[in-house]
Amino acid sequence: MRILEKVVILFIMVIVSVIYAGQLGPWSHFKAIDFNMTINYGDTLTINSGTEVRFSPSGSLTINGVIKSNGTSSDPVIFGALSATDPTWDGVNISNTDPLQVSTFNSTIFTKMYSTNGNGPININESSVDFINCRFFDNHADFNGGAVYVVAGNVNFTACVFRDNNAENGGGLYIYNNPSASQSSINLNYCSFVANRASNGGGLYVEDYDGAMYDMLLNIQNTGFNYNKATSLGGFGGGLFINVLSHLDLKFKLCKIQFNDAFVSGGGIYAKFNEMYGQPVLSQEFSNLLITKNSAMDGGGFYLNTGLTINPVNINIINTTIADNYILPGKTSKEYGGGGIHIVSNDNYPFIKNSIIWNNGNEYYLDQYLISDDTFPSPGAIFSYCNINDYVEGQGNISSNPRFVRPPLLFTGDNTLTFAADRYDYHLSLNSPCIDAGDPATPIDPMATPELNYPPVNMGAYGNTKQAAVPLSSLTPIVAGTVTDLNIPDGGVVVLDFEGKAQAFDYDLINLGEGSQLHFNAVNLATINIKELRTPIQPAGKYFNDERIVIQKINDGIDVTNKTLNISNIAQLHGVELSDIHLTVFDPLGGTPTVNIANSKIYNSDSELLSSGISVTDAATIDIINTNVDNFKTGIEVTGGTKESKASGRITNNTVTFDADASKAGQQVGVKVQNANGMDIEDNDIENGDIGIQMSNSTGGRITNNTVTFDADASKNGKLLGKIAIDINSGTDTVVEDNEIWIADSLSSVVSGINVESSSAQIFYNKINFVKSGILVRNGIVFNDVQSGTYAYNNTIFNATNGVNNTPGSYSVDFINNIIWNDGTRSAGVNNPDSLNFYNNDIEDLSGISGVDNISSDPLCIDPLTNDLVIGTSSPCMNTGMIISGFHIADSTYYGIAPEIGYMEYYEISLSAPENPTVSVTDSTFSFGWSVVSGATSYTIYSSDDPYAVFDSVATVVTTSWETSIATPKKFFFVIANDASKNVTISDEPFSYEEAINDKKNKVIKKSIPKKIKRTSSSR
């Protein structure tokens, strides 16, 4: 059982700043911060994995020393908001100019930061910081850097995601090269910018500084920019905005820029150089970029202005694909245009080679490029060895269909969130005219695969990389059926030719080496039966330039049907990309195959919706892990053929996606399991479709830690059937635990979170949130004639029309410690409470509900609109749940006097009272000390002139001593120990320094008996 462990603050400490000293922490579990905390230079704060650090609206963290946030992928550190009434906080400021003092954030989530000083809520000033596998989402800055603002320094972002952040400039990240005292280096590798918003630079904004003393090295590689927007009426750079003067050394390569929008110029990229001064630039490398499906008024894919640059030879666009971008409607005059790229120059134009500029346009016609230059250069002076629609002049230029593996069916001028960014495949098919058509003088990248790259390199984004294609003419096809074993070496490419035969071909073994490719030249109805299909066990790459193993049909522009691979014995596929391939595992002779599929991608064309991406029947062992399945009728389907051979194994950490707008017949199911025994479905991400996860006639398995989402437009297909996130039916008995169901579908008439029909399910710690339901039917949990052993403990259901929709059967259901609440537009309750036993729930509408200790009080969830259903610290659901014998275990699965109501359990620890207090006085100073309290992070001192009056806090310290000047002859004090959740007094009665003056010696004060401190936030 995974428990989210948290603690809760009890006192609001009235203090401006707390200064930490020495080796701090480690922090664990949960820390609530209600003030501005500072880490001094030379000091280090350590945060353990799984810790949640929650800040009040006035809270922030200033790091002048070093921080080590040690999250893991499975147990990240979370920095977020604490307050339900104001779910924001000030952010993190890092200012340590010592290059040897490196702060590190591993697997850390930053959310709900709202900068009050204008620039990024994470503000990095000439510091050294490493962010590894971090997530920045739903953050805001008024000016620059919605999530992070970097001023020079040495900063590395590796495998980080910026999502749904916003600012005036740089919705996700703002990088500024200022007059730094030393050279700066900023690196982004394997990162992703998704759905960020800004007036300029929707995802990223880069600003050079002309007066900088040193250069900034900016390296952006293997990074994606998807669905970002430059939103203002003068907005530039939907994906990213780059302003280069004379001190930025840019290497921008191996990146995807897709589905971004700008209101004015540069839907994908806006780049300008030396706008005000005639001066040179450092090397500006734009290479191996995939720029597709972006839009703007001007320069749909790429807007590039060379300004007054005197050495344009340093501005190079090499091996880039600019395709299917478009100009917004109504902008077709000469001032606007360049559906693919708009170049603005003054006889200092850039040089573009080895690139593909294809199928870009506006509302009326194709429009590949626009050159705005009063010297009227020939396009051939700019483009060389490029493939461009309707342009063949110039050295090496051609105009031929590039034959991408899976391009859009046609240009529509539509850039809505219709398709997953990865659905299109702009790799070159083996019959592409762009293969070996690049500049023969282009040097081979030493990181590229030698077997696939030799002069001349391919045109396009994948030329001169590990994913280059080889020409079909250079290969000798193997005729299908002539061999029974097929071994493809590392980097090898094989074409299997069916010679136009519509029949099945049998193979004993197909073995694929690292980076190998298998292509089928087959007609419709051609099938391949394989006993064993194997790849190396080690996972292949999953990024832009990494090696991959390819299994796909040859794109001849005619055959658009799927091909089927039938495997009867061993399916061992690691790091494989299957394009328009339907994979089945089944032995018709009655054997039990072995399935081991990991780190792979299986895509289906938009032209059809057939069968399942992976179909497994009667397998002995099943492991399907870290695999992406897109646009099939069913993503992953596992079936046990008979009760004697039920399926078992795990389906873990996969992503299954569907086209939310498709009008396709039948129900689309993410993961479907039938007749299984002990099949675990865990940590999967199911997006859209009609049913997220379906389990029937199965026992012993678990459905845990999955995320199921239905987008806002998910029901445009007009289907009459309802949608279900998790469907349990037909005699199944399973555990449904810790799943997240996030439903924004506002059109389907009926959507249910968890459906249990004629089955038994143990449902606990799930989060179900309906974003837009209106008057439509939205059921949190559906019980329909459930079987014995069904219960629902500690779930949170928000914004449902029916928290529970119940059809009673022969068995009763215990419904305990759950939250059912709405956004205020309606009251949520239970439809037909018969046979349901209610204990300690928080239900908005208690009509017809009987039971024990149920309440109807706002649970004070932090921010339901962004799916943050963590309850606030003053929630009435704190410590008010029922302790269920055998389920809740003190100090293990719950903390404090009782469990919380709802899906999330706070972590609490009990501090002992501070012991061995001492006081002393000099002529002008009163000193107060005590022993260390284990688990305490700070101590707060309170004082008053009257021992019977209200005491005010006067200081918070992390040391075990404090002193103050003597101002009056009588003053009373006490101290409490804090761990951001508990506060324990040092004495039952306050004492005064008057006593110390009288004694003229240290005085031991009576200790209090440690007491359990109750929360002040709620009562039942």
Describe the structure.
The chain is built from 2 helices and 95 strands. With 1020 residues, the chain is mostly beta strands. It has a 25-stranded parallel beta sheet that branches. The protein has a 24-stranded parallel beta sheet that branches. The longest helix is centred in the C-terminal third of the chain and has 7 residues, at 993-999. The radius of gyration is 31 Å and the shape is globular. The protein starts with 16 loop residues before the first strand and ends in a 21-residue tail after the last helix. The relative contact order is 0.06.
Mean pLDDT figure: 85
Bin the strand percentage: 35-45%
Sheet of most strands: 25 strands, parallel
What's the oligomerization state? Answer: single chain
Radius of gyration: 31 Å
Give the overall silhouette: globular
**Low-confidence residue ranges:** 1-21, 412-418, 714-719, 980-1020
User: In angstroms, what separates the terminal alpha carbons?
Assistant: 27 Å
Class based on secondary structure composition and strand pairing = mainly beta
Number of helices: 2
Helix content: under 10%
Total beta strand runs: 95
